[in-house]
Amino acid sequence: MRDAYHEELDSIGDSLVEMARMVGSAIGRATAAILDSDLKLAESVIEADQKVDDLQHDLEARAIALLARQQPVATDLRIVVTSLRMSADLERSGDLAQHVAKLTRLRYPERAIPQDLHATILEMGQLAQRLMAKAAEVLITKDVDLALQLEQDDDAMDLLHRTLFQHLMDERWKHGIETAVDVTLLGRYYERYADHAVAVAKRVVYLVTGEHADELQADIQPEIQPVAGAEGA
User: How far is CA 87 from CA 79, 82, 123, 137, 221, in A?
Assistant: First the structure.
């Protein structure tokens, strides 16, 4: 009975890793779709999000059943409750990737993103994918130092987000209001996606240590750097 119980806990952890990998792939494909105005690719991202939702629902059902049957305490209870919260972060990340894909579909056959913003959006998409890949690694390794590093890595996304607004506020902007709204929304999607990746990592810190990430002191330099020249773009 006890072995089966711990196998179920491990299975919940495996599902979280699978979700992280799925939503990481989704944001990468959604970025390619919006930059290339690839409707087929966008539709595949939109459709695949249902698999993420299904996985979350299954994880929730197993976690709740585990709570009811085993009534875990201490560390095991923390694992189950934290896993439920992480699954919600990952599900929301999948929704944000889907939003990027839906914007592609909305503007098709036109390109939603002006050519002069392609480099910035590409970098945001690649950075989002790398952040989620690191969150997946944290889920597997339970590496607290790596988890704490994600929040600092996220500074690069914040910088790229500000870069988009610099373009929008530039008096030379010539792409109209509709495109400005699209770009504003897109920047928000990537920024929020990165926040969810960071939230997953922070929850791993709590899972391992019993302390919130903000309470821990860490002098860790970010590994992920912003695109060259982004700050002054």
Answer: 12, 9, 26, 15, 28
107 touches 197 (CB < 8 A): no
Tokens of 204: 């791993």
With 70 as the cut, is the pLDDT of residue 219 above it? no
The tokens describing 7, both together, are: 């196998």
Q: Does pLDDT of 210 surpass 50?
A: yes
The full DSSP string for 105-153 is: HHHTTS-SS-GGGHHHHHHHHHHHHHHHHHHHHHHHH--HHHHHHHHHH
Give the residue among 223, 25, 21 at the shortest CA–CA distance from 137.
21
pLDDT beyond 50 at 21: yes
Contact status, residue 45 vs residue 102, Cβ threshold 8 Å: no
Its pTM stands at: 0.90
Q: Looking at residue 219, what DSSP letter applies?
A: -
